[in-house]
Amino acid sequence: MPSSFIRRALAASFLLVAAAAELPAAAQLSAQASPVVTTPRVRAELMAYAPDGVAPGAQVWVGLQLQHQPQWHTYWKNAGDSGLPTELSWTLPAGVTAGEIAWPTPHKIPVGTLANYGYENTVLLPVPLTVSPEFKPAASLTGGSASVDVRLKATWLVCRQECIPEEGSFTLKLPVQGTTALNRPAFDAAFDAAPAPLSRPGQIQVEGQQLKLRVEGLPASAQGRPLEFLPETGEVVHNAAVSGKDWQQAWEGGTWTATYPLAEQRSASPDAMPVVLALAEPKAGDKPLAWRVEAPVSGNWPATAAPAARAEVSPALQAALKENAATAPATTPFAASSLAMALLGALLGGLLLNLMPCVFPVLAIKVLGFARQSGDHGGHRRAALAYTAGVMISLLALAGAMLALRAAGAQLGWGFQLQSPAVVAGLAALFTLIGLNLAGVFEFGRVAPASLCGAQSARPLVNDFLSGVLAVVIASPCTAPFMGASLGFAITLPAGQAMLLFAALGFGLALPYLLAGFIPAVARLLPRPGRWMQTLQRLLAFPMFATVAWLVWVLGQQSGIDGAGALLALLVCLSALVWSFTLRGRARVVIASVLLVCTAVLAAGIGPNIVQGTPPAAAAVAGAQDRWQPWSTQRVAELNAQGRPVFVDFTAAWCVTCQYNKKTTLADAEVLAQFQSRNVALMRADWTRRDQAITAAITALGRSGVPVYVLHVPGKAPVVFSEILRKEELSSALAALSP
Amino acid sequence: MSKLSTSADRSLRAARQARAALTRASRRAIMTAAVALGATLLAGSASAAAPAVGQPAPDFVAVDTKGQQHKLSDFAGKYVVLEWTNPGCPFVQKHYNSGNMPATQKSATAKGVVWLSINSTERASGDFMQPVALDNWFKERQAAPTATLMDPDGAIGQAYGARTTPHMFIIDPKGVLVYAGGIDSIASARQEDIKSATNYVNQALAEAFGGKPISAATTRAYGCSIKYKAA
């Protein structure tokens, strides 16, 4: 293949290039005596300056010259906020000792909020060698003049944006007699670049988080000019401080003063600081360019570790601490007990969901199924498991999707499916079909093509699974007691724990059916099959139609009377269509096609009303019951500012619990009288359709679905009531208000 | 009910696909939102100076390499170690390739300490690593932090005055900064030096758990400059 050929050719040429590149490196390795090491970033050379040879008392300098590639730098003795100083370690003959590096004046290299001290371009780090009288030059084996072997192992960190630690070994032979002055210009430049020592010590005083510097004896040539402050001691000052902004300097005649900030995380508290002051704007001919001054430090360094008692903990953290202390005795990670409580609550909530009017019909269908296949225990078990799986998987999927949506910022709440008119209409159609089936208008076996009929018997498990899914879809709007609290709790949890909570909820929902499937005793409580079954089936059609009625009413709330009317018309068409399929022969073809056309025309004509119909204005609701005003956060704040308590009913047409509370507790004459006597403003927030402001308000109250009942009393935290609003609960809260 | 089942099947499949797409889309959105949130929380303190040892540690929210959110104040009641890191830095490599940092992490987390590795390298830097790549790099070296946090905007790093990689901070259960500085006492990029160096983090945690004051509470942080995003 051509591609593999190209790849091989490329590899071969790459090897050649690599081998070629390897050559100089190999040559360098073999020539151990080289004074030069070259890397892609620096060229380093060991140099010497011994104008009078190597003898006791003679001036002998050696040094490492670093030539940096553009943008690369190495570091000064105080590297600043990062980096490392270059290190030199010498191997010298007996009697010869190396001194400290005479560091040339560095540059301050700012890196954003940080700063380093170092060198760019070319720098020579000179080191004086001291030759003692004990030094005995080794006689040359070849009979030539004696020489001194100078060996250096150097490590340096070279950085641009990235940093590379590099090292090199260098060797140089210095003639004992004779002059080594080839590199004199480089040494002269290094000596010129070194700061000139000042004879008079400077003064440094610590004042709070600042250093006050005072330096006298600087030459007239420097006076009045801005200086750069370069401390040799690291870890004391805020290196990135900018003159004129973060630190100030001034001249008073020949005295230079400055105020320089300390580092926030200072790890050194020296008694004396040697500092280098360099001309910030050097001009050609300036010599020297910098001065070095030792300054004793007076005043007290601020404590680096303040006693913990003095530290002020932020209010948010304080709250978190308190909360953690309240829920967990010591350092237990997550409040395991409260999680267990929430799980139990979710389980109970799931159980209760079975009794909700929108779920019970599903359970009823399932029970009917058991009655039909009474005696087939294995089948019951499988059915129970499939149903449980259906419930739990779809609940988890729903919860996962909701968590993802919520996290993504979509302001959605529980029950959001029923906020979409299309979903409501779809469910109404589904329940109509189920109702018609139960009422005996048609049998599913006849509707389905023959090929699918065969599949049906093999797929009871799928049916059971799907009825589990159905149970969840319908259960979601019925935010029963426990469930709201569990959900509110779940939303604050990490995804894993939240999912666990939803799993518990699903398990609770599936539990009665699961028990019935597994424990024959429970299953045996179910009546034996008989003639009553058909009666029961017909009877169960009515809860289905009741559910349809409720769904149509919900849609009416969302899309108005036109939408609800359109839905009803379409449901009638659908029913007729389904019935027509049960006919036989020519009649079936004719009637079915006529009805099909009718349904299509009707759906195209008035269908959009279902989805797009204008929602009935909240004002209409408010107008009918002028006691209740439409809710808004501003209005609540306004009324609270006037000193009026505000009671808010977060509700939705599709929320059965909401409607129950509305007709009972909230319609109670005594309660209403109490509201009036306490001058409580009543507001209703209708969440039948999606509403960002309401979703946000509910979330702020720690809930994720309706109903939510809250009493805002001026100057107090809002009081949230339980979801099944009891009259006593509300009364006692109202009684506590001053009339 | 077979007709119902097939249509339900189909809609189930459609729903699954929609959910998958949503998860993909939302993961990115969550990330951006959370980082923005973290930055917002810090907006107040960003202008303020970095905390000194003994002062309250600034709270923050950050997203880890797995997309999970972490909030410092959620760990109230525990010691928290913050480790600034960048696999591109030879000083970080020194402590990971030698196994020193993973060992320090393991011994700390075994005591119940929360260990957060934080990467404040800006996206434009050559050292920047995508969360997955970063995670893999750590995994290959048996790193054991509680979480690895992405801070490409440098908000957390700036709030703590983190300068180098590595740069270590320890926060006590009350949320007070009790240690700031280097991982150990010998500033070099050589692995051989680890043996003879004092591991300041181990020392500080041992003292803290022993009820003793931390003897070296502020030390020199050495390493590469953090590649912060230009302000």
List key phrases describing it.
heterodimer, A: alpha+beta, Immunoglobulin-like, 4 domains, 44% helix, B: Glutaredoxin, two-stranded antiparallel sheet, 41% helix, globular, disordered N terminus
Give structural notes.
The complex is a heterodimer of chains A (739) and B (231). Chain A is of the alpha+beta class and 739 residues long. Chain A folds into 4 domains: 30-194, Immunoglobulin-like (Sandwich), CATH 2.60.40; 197-298, Sandwich (Immunoglobulin-like), CATH 2.60.40; 336-612, no CATH class; 618-735, Glutaredoxin (3-Layer(aba) Sandwich), CATH 3.40.30.10. Chain A is built from 21 helices and 24 strands. Chain A starts with a helix and ends with a helix. Residues 1-31, 305-318, 320-335, 409-416, 445-457, 477-485 and 615-625 of chain A have low confidence and may be disordered. Chain B has one domain: Glutaredoxin, CATH 3.40.30.10. Chain B has helices spanning 2-46, 90-97, 100-110, 131-140, 155-160, 193-196, 200-209; strands spanning 61-64, 69-71, 80-84, 114-119, 147-150, 164-165, 167-171, 177-181, 224-225. The radius of gyration of chain B is 20 Å and the shape is globular. Chain B starts with a helix and ends in a 6-residue tail after the last strand. The chains are: A alpha+beta (739), B alpha+beta (231). Chains A and B meet through strand 10, strand 11, helix 3, helix 6 and helix 9 of A and helix 1, strand 8 and strand 9 of B.
3D shape of chain B: globular
| Percent range for β-strand residues of chain B | 15-25%
CATH superfamily of chain B: Glutaredoxin
Span between termini of chain B: 64 Å
How many domain units of chain B?
1
Largest interface: A-B, 68 and 74 residues
- Derived structural class of chain A: alpha+beta
The CATH class of chain B is: Alpha Beta
Q: What percent of residues of chain A are in strands? A: 15-25%
CATH topology category name of chain B: Glutaredoxin
Low-confidence stretches of chain A: 1-31, 305-318, 320-335, 409-416, 445-457, 477-485, 615-625
Largest beta-sheet details of chain B:
7 strands, mixed
Cα separation of the termini of chain A: 93 Å
Element order of chain B: H for helix, E for strand: HEEEHHEHEHEEEHHE
Helix content of chain A: 40-55%
Oligomer state equals heterodimer
Q: Show unreliable segments of chain B.
A: 1-8, 21-47
Gyration radius of chain B, in Å: 20 Å
Structural class of the secondary elements of chain B? alpha+beta
Q: Judging by the overall fold, what is the CATH architecture of chain B? A: 3-Layer(aba) Sandwich
Structural Rg of chain A: 44 Å
